[in-house]
Task: inverse folding
RNA sequence: GCCGGGAUGGCGGAAUCGGUAGACGCAGCGGAUUCAAAAUCCGCCGCUGGUAACAGUGUGGGGGUUCGAGUCCCCCUCCCGGCACCA
């Protein structure tokens, strides 16, 4: 055995062995129970970052642990290969996104292999390959024919200078990131998945996911946002709408519909607010230039909800009046910049007395505020908003005529019934969740398989003509979708009538690819359809691991897609992921410089050094701005490159440190400190094994009498085996598992003696410790086990219950809840005996001063608390 | 703004069901080894007072429940994630 721990040598040897013997190939024909362990696939951004290392090490630990426990493990890997960064790179470097992406994949695959993950590389897939997206297009056409996919107008960010649609991320302070132009909202036609049709099932299905973190289920439930409310109408009187020369969708017979969850406050409505795009607003603006200007202003800015919610609430009176459905009152109609046309009805009723946003709006514009809910003992004031104004639980009706005195539910029921009788409203269940718009006006994505024919309309591409292949020799220039300029792509024949037609040039949201890749891993080579029978053999995924930032969108879309595939007969399960582990962010400092036009250039932490509290770029020594600690991301260029770590210390050290630095679910602030400590531990482990092996072979302890020190060490060993198994399997907390083995190694180093019995205990401890660490540090684990026990198959150690037995235990002694001492009692001592021993102790005597105790609390195995 | 989460020594973190706060590691300090250094090994290490024994104090801030609270309840502050076109 080598005396020195040489990570590079043993890691290369181990990886070569695994590749040669296809060690991690998942068998489709095994009779062992399956364990499908899946980590979220990476976007091929160029190089791995620490977030990837963390994510895939967690998955690898679980995969290897289960393999040791006898499961037929599948751990696949692939590439979420379509997306915006490839187009940005293309613009910056004049490289086709395809070439850039494939080069990145090659590099990152090499990096993943160097980390020694137990991945079945035979199942690798890339979503930008036609043999993958072909089936996505096929499913699209099926769903289009079923009506699950439909077309409607939707609002996007429009850059008027670059003549292109912008992602929310590309809108910075209301301006285009490249052009700096003020961004406008523009309505364009898009294809939508009818996810709202599955809203109820997506919500109730959360109850069948005990293996998911509560916080993720809560976030999804809130996102779906099921609420029972009332859809009701205000009448538009004849006098309210003037005749106009050109046709308008509005007539005096029309009704202005709104949805509200607070129908109990209907008697307090003092105005109605409509979106800038609402027909009523459009009509009013025809004869009101000031209003037209305001509407134009509303159409500026980004479409992101965070922007909509934080911007200043503005409005303007349209001059129109509508009629209150119950009171017949005349209610003014305002345009509000915070009302979204694509949300519900594009109009809201405003009750300033009981809605905080309406309250602020009414105060700003001097609109009336009418209290219609009261809480006993509270006084209503127009000056300041009080929490209780919106309290459903405590309030009941006031100033509401026949509805006075009714609580929330009774009032809603009564009002809904009266509206129904007038044919002006009904109870309705509504979801916050909106249908999923998947059209992207971008090149580097999966083409939407639709042909636009002047005669036949939107025609889905027939299965036999799929895939619609994306040309890979394109270099986008940042102004619109280059596919529009590719005649060879655009021009085609209508599949139905054969006449010349135009191919759709929009591509799909990349969330579509990531919504079903987990299923394709079961049968990546199947060319006869989307999935074959192996999908049901492997699905659902037993353990899914990924970043908490995907808690809502990706995980909701994947759940939705699974149900779509189920309803197509492709899979039989209802949910794709049984257990979910949401790893925390890997965060790191950010550094940037801002140019005169407000554009920020971000610098990698590796290129920045801090001296005397001032951060400066190593390259030019000039200062950079410290931008705070944020999740490692391409956009902020604060990813830490793990390659340097691997080169210097080896993959096992990188893996060990990542697992040791923080528990998986917490965010992990990256710092170079501590890596050294992890490496030191591996060297120490190697040395302990080396020194033991030098003494010659010995079988692990198999029974018999032991001296106290060895007996205590054995007890600690078996306590550790119990803890490590529990930490990995149930708690999924690896830092404490590693700490427990470190403690065990510290204790082993202190065990003295070279007799056969002592050495047999040492052998037992080392075998078990190496096996327990092997899922985390597999290369050194395999190397050491081969030295300790040549030619043996590494097995997960089992707990020897007999080794855990203790005759005497120590209990903490508290007086009035404060720790004052300890007592030793027999492990089997009764409660009475423990109490007596406690009271007899010197400490108790001191505090009791001869008086009897008020109370004695005995917590078995833990402590005694004497109250005096 | 809305939804979800977090805050514990100089630092990363532990305390799993309300029962010894600070395991394990990093940094630091002291010692051994060495011609010397690195590496390695041993010891100390929340804060305040004390030579010490020990006492007081301490888990973001304020209040509460309990024999006992880092853990449960109420209020507040700050930080992080998501907000539908970053992935």
Result:
């Amino acid at each position: 055995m080598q005396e020195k721990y040489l990570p590079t040598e043993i890691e290369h040897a181990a990886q070569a062995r695994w590749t040669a013997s296809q060690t991690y190939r998942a068998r489709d024909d095994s009779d062992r129970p399956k364990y499908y362990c899946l980590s979220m696939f990476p976007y091929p951004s160029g190089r791995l970052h620490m977030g990837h290392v963390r994510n895939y090490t967690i998955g690898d630990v679980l995969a290897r642990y289960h393999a040791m426990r006898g499961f037929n493990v599948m751990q696949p890997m692939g590439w979420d290969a379509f997306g915006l960064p490839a187009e940005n790179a293309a613009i910056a470097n004049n490289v086709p996104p395809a070439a850039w992406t494939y080069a990145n994949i090659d590099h990152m695959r090499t990096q993943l292999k160097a980390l020694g993950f137990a991945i079945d590389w035979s199942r690798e897939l890339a979503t930008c390959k036609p043999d993958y997206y072909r089936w996505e297009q096929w499913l699209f056409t099926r769903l289009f024919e079923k009506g699950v996919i439909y077309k409607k107008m939707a609002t996007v960010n429009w850059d008027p200078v670059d003549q292109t649609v912008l992602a929310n991320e590309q809108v910075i302070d209301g301006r285009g990131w490249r052009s700096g132009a003020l961004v406008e909202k523009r309505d364009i036609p898009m294809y939508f998945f009818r996810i709202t049709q599955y809203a109820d099932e997506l919500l109730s299905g959360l109850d069948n996911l005990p293996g998911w973190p509560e916080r993720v289920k809560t976030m999804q439930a809130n996102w779906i946002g099921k609420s029972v409310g009332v859809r009701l109408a205000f009448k538009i009187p004849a006098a309210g709408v003037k005749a106009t020369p050109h046709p308008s969708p509005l007539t005096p017979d029309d009704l202005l519909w709104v949805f509200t969850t607070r129908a109990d406050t209907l008697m307090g409505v003092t105005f109605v607010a409509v979106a800038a795009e609402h027909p009523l607003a459009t009509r009013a603006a025809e004869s009101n230039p000031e209003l037209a200007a305001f509407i134009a202003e509303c159409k500026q800015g980004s479409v992101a909800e965070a922007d909509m919610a934080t911007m200043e609430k503005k409005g303007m009176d349209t001059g129109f009046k509508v009629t209150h459905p119950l009171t017949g009152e005349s209610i003014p109609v305002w345009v509000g910049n915070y009302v979204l046309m694509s949300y519900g009805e594009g109009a809201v009723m405003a009750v300033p007395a009981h809605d905080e946003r309406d309250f602020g709006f009414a105060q700003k514009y001097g609109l009336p505020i009418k209290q219609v809910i009261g809480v006993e003992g509270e006084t209503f004031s127009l000056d300041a908003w009080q929490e209780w104004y919106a309290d459903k639980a405590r309030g009941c009706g006031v100033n509401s005529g026949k509805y006075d005195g009714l609580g929330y539910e009774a009032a809603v029921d009564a009002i809904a019934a009266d509206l129904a009788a007038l044919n002006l409203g009904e109870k309705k269940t509504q979801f916050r969740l909106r249908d999923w718009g998947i059209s992207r006006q971008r090149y580097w994505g999966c083409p939407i398989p639709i042909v636009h024919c002047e005669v036949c309309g939107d025609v889905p591409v027939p299965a036999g003509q799929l895939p619609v292949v994306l040309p890979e020799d394109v270099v986008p220039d940042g102004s619109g979708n280059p596919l529009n300029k590719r005649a060879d792509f655009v021009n085609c024949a209508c599949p139905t009538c054969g006449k010349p037609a135009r191919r759709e040039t929009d591509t799909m949201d990349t969330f579509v690819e990531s919504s079903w890749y987990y299923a394709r891993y079961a049968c990546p080579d199947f060319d006869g359809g989307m999935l074959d029978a192996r999908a049901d053999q492997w699905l659902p995924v037993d353990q899914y691991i990924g970043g908490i930032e995907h808690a809502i969108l990706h995980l909701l879309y994947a759940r939705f897609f699974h149900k779509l595939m189920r309803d197509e007969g492709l899979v039989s399960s209802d949910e794709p992921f049984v257990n979910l582990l949401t790893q925390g962010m890997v965060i790191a400092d950010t550094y940037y410089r801002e140019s005169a036009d407000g554009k920020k250039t971000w610098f990698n932490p590796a290129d920045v050094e801090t001296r005397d509290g001032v951060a400066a770029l190593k390259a030019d020594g000039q200062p950079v701005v410290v931008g705070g600690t944020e999740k490692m991301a391409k956009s902020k260029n604060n990813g830490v490159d793990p390659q340097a770590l691997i080169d210097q210390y080896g993959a096992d050290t990188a893996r060990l440190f990542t697992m040791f630095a923080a528990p998986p679910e917490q965010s992990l602030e990256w710092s170079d400190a501590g890596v050294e400590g992890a490496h030191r531990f591996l060297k120490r482990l190697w040395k302990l094994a080396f020194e033991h092996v030098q003494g010659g072979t010995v079988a692990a302890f198999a029974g018999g009498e032991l001296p106290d020190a060895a007996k205590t060490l054995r007890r600690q060993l078996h306590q550790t085996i119990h803890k490590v198994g529990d930490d990995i399997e149930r708690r999924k907390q690896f830092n404490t598992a590693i700490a427990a083995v470190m403690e065990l190694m510290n204790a082993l180093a202190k065990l003295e003696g070279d007799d056969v019995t002592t050495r047999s205990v040492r052998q037992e401890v080392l075998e078990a410790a190496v096996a327990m660490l092997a899922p985390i540090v597999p290369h050194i684990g395999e190397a050491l086990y081969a030295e300790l026990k040549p030619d043996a198959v590494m097995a997960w150690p089992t707990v020897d219950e007999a080794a855990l037995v203790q005759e005497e235990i120590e209990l903490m002694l508290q007086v009035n809840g404060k720790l004052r001492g300890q007592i030793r009692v027999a492990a089997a001592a009764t409660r009475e005996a423990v109490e007596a021993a406690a009271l007899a102790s010197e400490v108790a005597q001191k505090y009791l001063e001869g008086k009897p105790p008020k109370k004695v609390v005995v917590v078995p195995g833990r402590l005694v608390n004497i109250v005096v």
Observations:
- The longest strand of chain A covers residues 149-159.
- Residues 392 and 408 of chain A are 6 Å apart (CA to CA).
